[in-house]
């Protein structure tokens, strides 16, 4: 099959399902077909070959695409067309992957359900009354509904893994620094990472291969060369030490999810892995500390949206200050404003020590918990989410309830570790996710464990 045929096929499928699922905020149909044609010509000329050549994919709408809308699903960026590509966009274009469009998300990646998008709520393809998770819910729904072969999302506190889990697909958050964040519109810079959402573990390795690499444009990007993640796809966990994270099975986690994870662990044991429980005593503080740190960083990162440089500008104003205030009041949604307020408060004189500084200390304790655990284990296992996909509207007016859905994923971002979510069962027809956490830069071992399970 040619790249053009493949692209046309998937665009046809999108015509049928997109009105139900609503995974995309922008569809790049004409460009995609002409780009695919160009790719076919070059393949015929014997020119290009890569694992992802001619493969149609999508990008979360906070990843910059030159000449193509990048809105963060926010009114404040609704007309923003970036003048440059994110490094990951450039890398996928170099591989000759075909961009089908930009996927829906929670506004500025703040949320766990894709309901805070200014455009629309994306539906979970497994049950259209339920959320696909978030914030990369559009990316996960697109892959699950066959509207893209793979997608890139961003994960600050779980936004790749949680929607992957809700939509029954594979989602990987790489080690902090492994994938360039240049051109990813920042939410919380010390936690954000870009990563793949794919149908299976093999695709995950191929996409990871394509986006890893040092980038001078991102000062936190590391030089980590020479790993071919395809080589990690071995069907064997013999002798590997797997830790079960004790605190991740405590209150609030659904019994069926616990059971599915324990059944998976039995399978690993039967294949020769050594499975033992391990305790990370500071886990209970992770969620609160995360929301202080993420909000603080976002209050600073989002200061640039002032109505002057780009994006939305309020129509009627009396002074410069009035312009700032009206633009931001009209341009940002409720959840984004809540975070900016919370972050500004935590960073303000008199509260900095009590909140922000304290949260940083908790972050260090969490990191140390993981470091200790990794002295004895190769990978750690936990549920990805405490529940399966919830109903649209169920948590949108309950911010704390919504924040709780990240309880199993945020500690991993706080520690900068890599983790993958893979499907491991169902509850009432809805997918359950198994989370495998690895040592820094040891994506290979988590891919190996995931591949063996699959
Ligand atoms: N749901 C979490 C939050 O709202 C995580 C979001 C993310 O990873 N981008 O902060």
UniProtKB/TrEMBL annotation:
GO-annotated molecular function: ATP binding; glutaminyl-tRNA synthase (glutamine-hydrolyzing) activity; transferase activity
Annotated active site: 60, 135, 159
Catalytic activity annotation: L-glutamyl-tRNA(Gln) + L-glutamine + ATP + H2O = L-glutaminyl-tRNA(Gln) + L-glutamate + ADP + phosphate + H(+)
Xref: PROSITE patterns: AMIDASES
Family: Belongs to the amidase family. GatA subfamily.
Task performed by this protein: Allows the formation of correctly charged Gln-tRNA(Gln) through the transamidation of misacylated Glu-tRNA(Gln) in organisms which lack glutaminyl-tRNA synthetase. The reaction takes place in the presence of glutamine and ATP through an activated gamma-phospho-Glu-tRNA(Gln).
Protein name from the UniProt record: Glutamyl-tRNA(Gln) amidotransferase subunit A
Biological source species: Crassaminicella thermophila
Lineage: Bacteria, Bacillati, Bacillota, Clostridia, Eubacteriales
Name of encoding gene: gatA
């Amino acid at each position: 099959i040619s790249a053009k045929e493949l692209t046309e096929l998937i665009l046809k499928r999108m015509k049928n399902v997109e009105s139900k699922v609503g995974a995309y905020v922008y569809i790049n149909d004409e460009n995609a077909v002409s780009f695919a044609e160009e790719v076919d010509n070059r393949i015929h000329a014997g020119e290009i070959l890569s694992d992802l050549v001619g493969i149609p994919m999508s990008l979360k709408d906070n990843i910059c695409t030159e000449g193509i809308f990048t809105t963060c699903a926010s009114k404040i960026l609704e007309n923003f067309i970036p003048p440059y590509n994110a490094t990951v966009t450039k890398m996928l274009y170099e591989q000759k992957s075909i961009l089908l469009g930009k996927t829906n998300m929670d506004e500025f990646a703040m949320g766990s359900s894709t309901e805070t998008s200014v455009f629309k709520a994306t539906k979970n393809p497994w049950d259209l009354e339920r959320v696909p998770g978030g914030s990369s819910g559009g990316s996960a729904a697109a892959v699950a509904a066959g509207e893209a072969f793979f997608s890139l999302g961003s994960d600050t506190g779980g936004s790749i893994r949680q929607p992957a889990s809700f939509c029954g697909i594979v989602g990987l958050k790489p080690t902090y620094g492994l994938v360039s964040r240049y051109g990813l519109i920042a939410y919380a810079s010390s936690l954000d990472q870009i990563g793949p959402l794919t149908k299976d573990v093999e695709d995950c390795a191929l996409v990871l291969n394509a986006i890893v690499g040092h980038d001078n444009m991102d000062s936190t990007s590391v030089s980590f060369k020479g790993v071919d993640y395809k080589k990690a796809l071995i069907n064997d966990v013999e002798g590997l030490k797997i830790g079960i994270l004790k605190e991740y099975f405590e209150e609030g986690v659904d019994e069926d999810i616990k059971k599915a994870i324990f059944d998976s662990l039995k399978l690993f044991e039967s294949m020769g892995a050594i499975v033992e429980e391990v305790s990370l005593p500071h886990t209970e503080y992770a969620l609160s500390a995360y929301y202080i740190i993420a909000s603080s960083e976002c209050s600073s990162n989002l200061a640039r949206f002032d109505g002057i440089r780009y994006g939305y500008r309020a129509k009627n104003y009396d002074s410069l200050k009035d312009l700032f205030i009206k633009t931001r009041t009209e341009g940002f949604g409720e959840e984004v404003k809540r975070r900016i307020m919370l972050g500004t408060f935590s960073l303000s004189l008199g509260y900095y020590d009590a909140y922000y500084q304290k949260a940083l200390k908790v972050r260090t304790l969490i990191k140390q918990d993981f470091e200790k655990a990794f002295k004895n284990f190769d990978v750690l296992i936990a549920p990805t989410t405490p529940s399966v996909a919830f109903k649209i509207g169920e948590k949108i007016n309950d911010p704390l309830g919504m924040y709780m859905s990240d309880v199993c994923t945020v500690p991993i971002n706080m520690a900068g570790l890599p983790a993958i979510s893979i499907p491991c069962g169902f509850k009432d027809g809805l997918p359950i996710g198994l989370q495998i956490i690895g040592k820094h830069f040891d994506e290979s071992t988590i891919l190996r464990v995931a591949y063996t399970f699959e």
